[in-house]
Amino acid sequence: MKVLLATQKPFAAKAVDGIVKILTEAGHEVIKLEKYEAQADFVAAVKDVEAIIIRSDKVTEEVMAAAPKLKIVVRAGAGYDNVDLEAATKRGVVVMNTPGQNSNAVAELALGLMIYMARTQFTPATGSELQGKRLGVQAYGNVGRLVGQKAKALGMKIHALDPFLTDEQIVAGGADPVHSVEELYAASDYLSIHIPALPSTIGSIGYDLITKMPKGATLVNTARKEVIDEDGLLKALEERPDLKYVADVMPDNYALLQEKFGARVFATPKKMGAQTSEANVNAGLAAARQIADFFATGNRKFQVNK
To answer: What is the DSSP letter of 286?
Structure first.
């Protein structure tokens, strides 16, 4: 089978070597498309491939239409909103992610962003400490649990909301459960977002929720920019000069937010959550193993378009 490694933002060399080793030892041929300039380059490269490994690359209807032999796409990472799931399902293409492989990297970044904002972006101004503050975690999955556990070690008080977990599971993960998103925001000095971008969540965090946060609160987004209602965020920050927003996903109106609110807002210039050498290798190798296992045994454990 031909496997295309399509990465506009390439894996580390160690990860690439590991991916190639895993797949060639399993009897597959690996083709690399790295640092390509245009989506058309991606479309042109898929003609004869049966499998694709991607990072943030977009697997659209056009890509799949150009790949008649395609059977599986694996996104190296947890999110998969860069893959057209409906088109994949219609074509019988299995789409998988690699949950948990980037989790620690994202969790550490979330805590780092909290500290950065608490210490006034490392300016000489007086900051504050995280110890004793209340941290709300919106979605208590792989990343959310790690954020909660690390924050608890810093002396923060953790509570979490996750409609897919029981209260007992949340408690076992080290947090106190809450039962509504309104309650979560109202009780959080820091609120860490870990929900996916789905039709039901896109634009779901806006003025009404943000303004429920306590005085001096900070909203932390290492999930997807699409879950934020940016007009609502702007209005909330205008009306509440005590609130702060920090993100690993630069909002479309970031220049305006910086102009109006200065050090109360910060966004990384590029999505950095998974940008560690460890996460880079872990996610890439997991993607290669999942493809090898899929062709060898039919294993679809991490399929997301069921």
So the answer is: H
Phi, psi of 139 (to 5 degrees): 95, 115
Residues in the chain: 306
Largest CA distance in the chain: 60
Predicted TM-score of the model (pTM): 0.85
SS3 of 175, please? coil
List Cα–Cα distances, 9 to 81, 96, 152, 280, in angstroms: 17, 19, 34, 11
pLDDT digits (tens, 9 = 90+) for 75-125: 998 889 899 999 999 999 999 999 999 899 999 999 999 999 999 999 999
What domains can be seen in the chain, in order of their start residue?
2-101+275-297 (3.40.50.720), 103-267 (3.40.50.720)
Specify which residues 73 forms β-bridges with: 52, 95
The beta strands (E) that lie in 206-264 are given as: 218-221, 244-247
